[in-house]
Amino acid sequence: MSRYRWLTPLSNQRCRRPLDRQSLLQWTLVCLGGVVLAMGFGLAAWQQLEALRMSYEAHRLRGELEELIRERQQLETERQQKLSPMHIERLGRPYRFVRPQAGQTIVLEARP
């Protein structure tokens, strides 16, 4: 004989627990918080990469600007040399050009 007084047959069915709404709400909030936190970390990483890319771009543009400033200075120096009276006189020597006298020059006014 068994030590239990009433024996009930075993049924292999799962026990259904009642739905615990508070526990479900807590897990939902935890998962939602995890997703928000992961998105925040993703945004921070994206910002770091964009800042690094913009830093490289700024460095490249700064170098290009310095190169253009040097080229402009070189062209300005060359322009000043080409417009100097000594250079113009040297170019005119083979053709026997001479400087104009005071009465030979005419001043023209540009009208808009």
Describe the structure.
With 112 residues, the protein is an all-alpha fold. It is 63% helix and 0% strand. The protein has 2 helices and no strands. The protein is rod-shaped, with a radius of gyration of 45 Å.
Structural shape: rod-shaped
SS class:
mainly alpha
How much of the polypeptide forms β-strand, as a percent range? under 5%
Helix content: 55-70%
Tally of extended strands?
A: 0
What's the gist of this structure?
Helices cover 63% and strands 0% of the residues. By secondary structure, it is mainly alpha-helical.
Secondary structure blueprint with pairings:
Layout: H1 21-83, H2 85-92
Label this structure with key terms:
mainly alpha, 112 residues
